[in-house]
Every structure is written in structure tokens, then in C-alpha cells.
Predict the structure.
Amino acid sequence: MPPKPKTLKPIRPNAGVGAAYERDLIALIDEMERAIRSQLRARYRKVEDRITQDASPAAELQSLMDKLTERWRSRFNELAESLAPRFVDRATASIDRTYKRELDRAAGFTIQFRPTEGVTDAMKACVNENVLLIKSIGEHHLSEVNQMVMRAVAHGGDLGELTDGLQQRFGITRRRAANIARDQNAKVTSAINKQRQIETGLFESEWVHSAGGKHPRESHVEAGRKRLRFDVREGALIDGERIWPGQLPNCRCSCRVILRGFNDK
């Protein structure tokens, strides 16, 4: 039996980088929750007795929601423009450190990475995607809250029902933010790692399945079990399409770089 090929350890998303990203998102969401809940409760309490009598409570509450939406949309836009590039920079730096360390450990390679065009383009694409996602968190949440308030007014809901609804909605938004942070950490790692492999001429990899998800894709489990080999320039052929580890939503897979010429027959 021929010896197994020499490989690098899989480069996985940096948990600390992902946690910091999630922490910044959740901090702004929590701040928004406190402000919106406080102001809506105070205004709703004042108009609650008039909700079924005339249209002015709806107008007052809509005016308040317009102001809250403008304010928090602006805050999320500001966070997106600062957090996205910081996150991608930190993730890229972590990937480069790990890749250099593995190359030195496994093959004695010493390399200094530079901001090449390929990596720069990949980083810009990742930043743009993250900016849109961060903005969408605030936009989607504010839209849902606005609809919730108007439904409460239309159906004569009391303050307790509205408060419970707001709490549930904030829980959904927090979970979505956590999922975005985790998923984007995997996607950035996948994109930058792919470019670094190409630039170092190490094109061949084998698929490594992560057992961390609750609902793994069976095809990804099978690819990991079989140590599916693929050219990183093309992606792995799975389910009829070329993909990379960590590319699909909630995919936590990674890959091992195969070092050609080191006991690989």
C-alpha cells in the first residue's frame, strides 16, 4: 500500500475573530433593543386608551417608528462600514499566520505573504458582502418591529402583548446575527485560504468534513469520509456543482492541502 500523502493541517476559522465579530453585532442589537423597547412602551402607554377610538395613535406611533428607523438604520450602516473591513483584516491575518506556520512545520517552507491582487480582490468581495449583511440586520429588524406595532394598533393589542412580541423579535434578530458571524467567518476563511493556496502553487486538497453542525449535508459527510481530492482552482465536485469548503451557507467543512513530492504516489 502506498504511503499517505503529506498534508497540512486544515485551516479552520479563527474562533476568536468570529466571537469578536458576533460580540460587536450583539452589542449594537442590545443597545437598539433597550432604546426601542423603552420609547415604544412609553409612547404606547400614553395612547393605549385611544387606540380603538381614533386614528391619531397610529399616526403618533408611526412617527416615532420613522424616527427610530432613521436613527438605528444610520447606526447599523456606520457599524457595517467599520466592522466589516476590521473583521476581514483580522481573519486574513489569522489565516496567513496559520498557513505560514503549517508550511514551515510540515515542509520547512518559509514564506512572507504580501497583499497580492487575488487576495486583495477576495478581501474586498468579503468586505462588501459583510457590509450588506450587517446593514440588513438592522433594516430587517426595524421593518418587522414597525409592522408589529401597526398590527397591535389595528387590532387593539395591549402593551403586554406588544412587549412580548418585541422580546421574541429581538431574540430572532440576535440568533440571526450570531449565525451571520459564524457563517461569514467560514466564508472568509474559505475565500482567503483558496487564494493563498493558488499563489503558493499548492493546488491539490482533500475535503475535511466538520462534525460541528446539527444538520450536516450527507454529501459533505461522504466527501470527508472518502477524503475527496480536488483542485482548489476548480473546487470539489459535490452534488453536481463545484464548491469549496465553507462556501455554502452554514458549511463548516475545511480541507487539507496536499504537499506534492512528499511521499505522495
The first helix runs from residue 15 to 47. The first strand starts at residue 204 and ends at 208. Helices lie at 15-47, 56-107, 117-154, 159-199, 218-225.
